Every structure is written in C-alpha cells, then in structure tokens.
C-alpha cells in the first residue's frame, strides 16, 4: 500500500486508539468538518482499512452517525512474547483485539529451539492471513539492544537475534517485555492520560520503563528501564548479571526461596506463585518481606522520577495483592516529605500478562502509521 494523506492516517490512528469512535466524534478529534471526515472515511472503507457499523441515533439535534471499527478483511499485525517459561504469538487487528493466536511452553531450551517454534507459528499465521499481515513485534525476557539483540541472563541466552523469527518482515520491532508492557499500560491500561508513568514488572528479576505523554523513554540503545539492577538489594547476593546487590534479587522467587531456606528455584516465577498461594506463617512472612523491598525501591524511583502513577505487572501485581499494607508502608516511609500528602498511586497493571503482547502490537502499529505517511 502506498502513502495516505495525513488526515487518513490520523483517522486510522484515532479509531485504533478508540475502537467504536463515531464518524462525528472522529471529525471533532481531528479538527475537520463532517464533510471532510465523510470523505476520509469513504476512502478508508473503500481500501478495506476501516468498516462502518449501523447508524447511531443522534444526541440532541445532531445528525445520525456511524461507529468506525476494524475492517473484517483489514490489516493485522503479529505480536509475540517469549517468557522464561513460554512463548505466544497473536494476530491483532486495528483497535487492539486479537483475532487468532498460538502458544507453547519451553523449559529453558537453547534460544534457537524456542525461536524456531515461534518462527513456525508466525509462518502459520502469515499463511492463514496472507498479505493482511503488516509486521511483527516481539517482547523478550531480558535486555534487547538496538531493537534486535536479546540477552536473557536467567535463561543463559546472549546475543540472540530476534529478527530471525521473520527475517524479511516489512516492519519488525523487538523490545524488553517490561518496556512494552509499560507502553501498553499508557495506551490501553492503568496509565492512560498520565503525564509521566512508571511501570515495573517483576518476573525472573525486575524490569520497567518510563513513559512520558505516551512516549517511551528508551535510552541510547533502547536498554533504559533496567531498574532491577539498581543496587537496592542485599550486597551479599550476586545477580545473574554479574553485579552484587541488585534490587531484582530482593523481590523475585529467588528472594522468597532464600527467606524460606529453600534451594534456588529452577523456575523462580512458578516458585514465587507457589509461595504466594501458601497459607502458612513462614510463607506470609517471606511475602511481606519481599513486598516491603519492592515498596522501598518504588519510593526511590518516585523520588527520582516524579511519576503521576506507578503500575506493577507480573509478580509485582501479585505481591501488591498479597501484602498491600507492607508494600504501601515501605513505600511511604521512603518518600521525601513533600510527597507524603499526595503520593502517586501504586496500582496493579490493568492488562496483566497481556501487557507485553499488547505493547508489541502497539509498536508495530506506530511504525506502520509512519510508513503510511511517507
């Protein structure tokens, strides 16, 4: 598809952000007249990029209008996520809804084997949907440099080429799972409309990102947000990254195992969820200690970054649910005095485990809008 006029691309982006937007609402959002909006919509419907629903009765004296949605034969993007235990790839239509998906599990196999499974699933979805597929976004469980190279220390993966999943994709972007979850929360989750949002995701370690007015602050090589490697943990504990005292080692399944005098878990995420599900004094005490360590670190980042809201994903949300008092008390104790009266809310990520996948899709749509404007 060739370039589209700016108004047409803006219309697509508006409907993507707000599925079900009426034609009249879209004209107001874009600052164009109803006649101009009708012309743009007509072109987009003709090119099978948008569809119009039934007539919506007018409110007051306005004219009846129609809701705008994804075309049933319209563009799709593929979004994939690899975790320390599993992989998943979905086909996502305009507006963010998934229309198909494939998934599987792995047990820390070499990166090549896991990506080969993911590549076969991507090929299956491409065969199913043909040229409707516009690109691929990938979320990885570690540092992703230059939107391509993954280092997942817990899995022992280094310099993994994520682009091998679809080498000749027209649009291909990759990033850290926590970074993409942060973007998703700002677009479709608990941080919508925040001026500055801080997202933290606890998995096998801790990562996160800062989003300012809907824009990720990614750093020089896209590796910003590795908050789990701030030296806010126990200096006696060595992290898989090679440093000592990383904050992530104080808030994950490994931290719970040490508090319970258990061996280092092979699968720290599954182990953490097993401890969270227990109903005994030792488990509750360990969870409270880890939740407090998470709260203290949140306070430090709030003091440094001044966010409107802090969203917690992965095990972070589960720790918040299990020990809200301990997490909140530790956070408040670490805040500067002037923040004490109105600290930013610390809330569970609304999108949950779908966050990284949703963020991966959003990145591809962003790149596709840019291509349409050329």
From TrEMBL:
Residue ranges the record marks as coiled coil: none
Keywords for this protein: Kinase, Transferase
Alphabetized InterPro entries for the sequence: ATPase_NBD (IPR043129), ROK (IPR000600), ROK_cs (IPR049874)
Single GO molecular function: kinase activity
Family classification: Belongs to the ROK (NagC/XylR) family.
Name the UniProt record assigns to this protein: Sugar kinase of the NBD/HSP70 family, may contain an N-terminal HTH domain
Organism: Geodermatophilus nigrescens
């Amino acid at each position: 598809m060739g370039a589209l006029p700016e108004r047409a691309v803006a219309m697509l982006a508006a409907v993507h952000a707000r599925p079900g937007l009426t034609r009249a609402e879209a004209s107001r959002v874009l600052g164009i007249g109803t006649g101009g909006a009708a012309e743009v919509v007509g072109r987009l419907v003709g090119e099978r990029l948008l569809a119009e629903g039934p007539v919506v009765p007018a409110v007051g004296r306005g004219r009846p209008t129609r809701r705008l949605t994804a075309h049933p034969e319209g563009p799709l993007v593929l979004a994939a996520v690899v975790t320390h235990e599993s992989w998943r790839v979905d086909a996502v239509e305009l507006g963010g809804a998934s229309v198909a998906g494939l998934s599987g599990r792995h047990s820390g196999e070499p990166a090549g084997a896991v990506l080969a499974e993911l590549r076969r699933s991507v090929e299956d979805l491409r065969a199913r949907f043909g040229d409707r597929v516009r690109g691929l976004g990938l979320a990885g469980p570690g540092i992703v440099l230059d939107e391509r190279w993954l280092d997942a220390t817990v899995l022992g993966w280094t310099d993994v080429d994520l682009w091998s999943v679809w080498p000749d994709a027209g649009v291909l972007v990759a990033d850290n799972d926590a970074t993409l979850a942060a973007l998703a929360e700002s677009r479709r989750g608990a941080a919508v409309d925040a001026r500055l949002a801080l997202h933290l995701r606890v998995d096998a370690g801790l990562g996160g990102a800062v989003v300012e007015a809907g824009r990720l602050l990614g750093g020089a090589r896209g590796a910003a947000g590795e908050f789990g490697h701030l030296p806010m943990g126990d200096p006696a504990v060595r992290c898989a990254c090679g440093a000592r005292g990383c904050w992530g080692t104080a808030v994950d399944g490994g931290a719970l195992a040490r508090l319970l005098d258990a061996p280092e878990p092979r699968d720290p995420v599954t182990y953490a969820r097993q401890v969270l599900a227990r109903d005994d004094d030792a488990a509750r005490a360990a969870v409270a200690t880890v939740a407090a360590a998470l709260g203290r670190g949140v306070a430090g980042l709030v003091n440094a970054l001044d966010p409107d809201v802090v969203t917690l994903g992965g095990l972070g949300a589960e720790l918040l649910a299990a020990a809200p008092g301990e997490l909140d008390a530790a956070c408040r104790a670490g805040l500067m005095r002037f923040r004490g009266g109105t600290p930013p809310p610390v809330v569970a990520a609304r999108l949950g485990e779908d966050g990284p996948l949703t963020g991966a899709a959003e990145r591809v749509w962003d790149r596709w809008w840019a291509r349409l404007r050329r």
